[in-house]
Structure formats: C-alpha cells, structure tokens
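Report of the visiting student (M.T.), summer placement. My assignment was to run the structure pipeline on a short list of targets and document each run. The first record concerns Type IV pilus assembly protein PilW.
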Amino acid sequence: MKHTPNLHRQQGLTLAELMVAMVIGMMIVMATYASLTVARQGFGTVNATSELRDNARFAIAIIQQMATQAGYKNDYNATYMQSSSDATGFNLGGASETVQFVHGHNSAIITGKNIVTTGNTIVNSSDILTLRNMTGQLTEANNWTDRTMVDCTGTRRDASSMIESHFYVAISNGEPTLMCKFNMDANAEPLLSGVETFQVLYGVNTAADTNTFNDTVASFQFLRADEITNNAMWRQVRSLRIGMVLRSAPGSGGEKTAQDYWPLGKAIGDDNNKFTSEADDRMRQVVTFTVQLRNNLNPPNLNASL
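After the run finished, the structure tokens were exported:
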C-alpha cells in the first residue's frame, strides 16, 4: 500500500512576509515606471532634435532659393542698372521707378501693408529681409514664363512680373513664426513655426572705388540694415548672413532654465543679436548660414548692358 504524504494547506503569511512582498512589488512598479519615463523623455528629445534639424534645413533651403534668384532680370523687360553708382537695382520696362533687389529693416515687423519699426509687436528684435527678382520669359514675342521662378510661398509667377518676397517674424497661432509676404499683399503666409528671432547682416563691399572688382577682405564688411544708409551701399551688397533661434514644442527640453543665444555669433557687437529664452521646457537650436547673391557679383560700370 502506497504511503500518501500529508499535505499542509497554506495557513497565510506573517506580517513580516507580507510587508517584504509589498516592498518588493512596489520596487518593481517604481522601476518599471522610471524606465518608461526615461524612455519617453528620450524619445521626446530625439523627436524634438530631429524636428529642429528638419526645420533648420527647410528655412535654409527656402531663403537660399530666394537669395539665389535675387537680382535676376528678364532681358526682354528690364534693364539692369549698373551704369549708375546710385542705382537701386531694377528699371522695369524702361519706367522711371527703380527698386532694390535686396533690402532690409533692422528690428521691424510688417503689419498689413505697413513696415513697423517701433512698438511691442516686433518679435525679439527680429529683422525684415526683402528679396526681389523678375520671372523668366521664353521669347520676346510672347509673355510665356518658363515657370522656373517662384516666390517665397512656392507660387510660380507670370512672365514679366517682379517677384518680391518679404521674410519676417510674427506671432501666428500663439507661436513666433517665420512669415512670408509676396509683394506686400494683405495676407502673409506662415512658413515655419517656432522661429523666436530672425537676424540679418548684409555683406557689403565698402571699397571707395566701386568701378573695379575690389571685394577684398579689407573692403568687405557685414552691416545691419540701419547701417546701410543709401542706395549705392545697397547696390554693393554681395551676400547675406542669416541667424535664427528655433524652438521645439513644449515638454521636450527637460530643465526649465533661461539661456542666452547669439544667432549671429558672440563676436557680433549688436544688442539685437543676443536672445534670452524663457525658462521653459523647450529645446532650442541656433541656425547661422551665409548666402551669396549670385546675380550681383559684377561691380557697377563694368558692363552697363550686362
């Protein structure tokens, strides 16, 4: 006959055993929560960093494209004004009105169709950059455009028309946003949200003799818009240096501390160049780049007819 061992039923836990089990369970839960929190924060940081990089690439691409077009003339409908040292850039169809192919305003904003240089609507002393060019035309006998010239909104414009793109920062849906306005239209197009400041310096050939190609280091300076005092100096702008501070969405920056940023570099002695962020939990990135104005490499008077 097989012997059956006595089976003892569970009689419960002592208080010490129960407390130890509860502590171990709580430690497991807390470790799991901490691990998930760190993973979530890491994902948010990586996502915010990628978004800032994409935004920077987009801003650089669109401004570079407009700057590359700046100063382009349609041979059939415009005369490039190089014969006069005080020329402003274009003479449309032989008309007396002339406009500058590159222009700007220091610490300003566009409201409606007006340029405002004072008041609290200016976002962090941001600047206005204006770039102009004409559209291409296939033949002299018609007004067919070659459809290669676009404005800052991405719209292809008709032949014989002038494209005028204004870049500036304004508040849109509660966020500082890089805006684009075409030909001072009533409505502006938001290009990129989260641009806290937009600073522009203009690379100017300040040589006394503007009739020779003298773009040397000694005669080349980066100036603010308010330091370019006449049309002759605007005509000598050879490049643009752009500085911006981009910010991410809330909740991706970790510590809530205010920091100082210099979108154009600390070496630039300009009060508007220093930007102090709010003490929030956003990530920020400084974007600085230089664009050459390809259609303004010839000095005045070298070739009046171009």
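Helices lie at 15-69, 231-235. The first strand starts at residue 78 and ends at 80. I thank the supervising group for their guidance throughout the placement.
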